[in-house]
Design brief:
about 325 residues, alpha/beta, Rossmann fold, Dihydrodipicolinate Reductase, domain 2, 2 domains, 6-stranded mixed beta sheet, 10 helices
Length: about 325
Amino acid sequence: MSYDLSPVGDDAELTPPPARPRVGLLGTGPWARRTHAPALAAHAGSEFAGVWGRRPEAAAGLAEEYGVKVYDDPDALFADCDVAAFALPPDVQAPLAVRAAAAGCGLLLDKPVATTVEDARAVADAAERHGVASVVFLTLRFADPAAAWVEEQAGRSGWFSASAHWLGAVFPPDGAPSAYADSPWRKAKGGLWDVGPHALSVLIPVLGEVTSVTAARGPSDMVQLALRHTSGAASTAVLSLGAPVAAAGVGLEVRGAEGVFSLPNWTDVPGAYGRALDALLTAARTGVPDARDARFAARLTEILAQAEAQLPA
């Protein structure tokens, strides 16, 4: 099984946002509680308007905590809001994002936008067809100082190679699982789909589009990717959610004619989410699609799907 890895899509005109856009949150899990809701409540340029969730009692509790409206119907939230912010499993997110775009909402999406190429492209197509802005919250592309580091490396040339690892201890073999261990989609899809988008979101802008990908399985849910890029550089990525606690960590290094450069540490995840919302509102106001939009997210899904197709069942 293979997919066309060439970029697709066009730059549709985007609908500008109102002066203080209303943002509705879809999702009530740990990620929504720890990152999305606090960041939306703290964002000075928008209004946190309401919450919808698949568990009504959790949605009511989160809405009460922030003094916002609870919705029992996502379409009612879309009708009331200018932006739909998603903290949902990817295959729940994708069809709802299509509906949100049709209702005229800007899309602040989570990664991966979907786990099938068809669904990911449907989200990108819907955003373009309805003229709404979209941004995917890829942490390394918004967190300080990682985001600035990516931009700096993207301005260099002469790259030779890169290596990335994202080894999470969500399902560690030697310790207590994390708060995200109850996520069914993470259990089913593993590190390739959960943290793979993060690694690719840095490798692609720095080294160029992926022209080929080879995937192999390691221990636990580990997947090893070998990539070639349009710059001619080769890269590798090692991805897992099942690493031992002592082995967990994140790193990325690029090597080329100008030297060796390592991704700096970052910690400001709620702040990064606020900057992702800023990027969405800027795209809507200017009519210029953001580089981290739903079409880029669909591209990530294409690459991950091609990798997954090479792995043993």
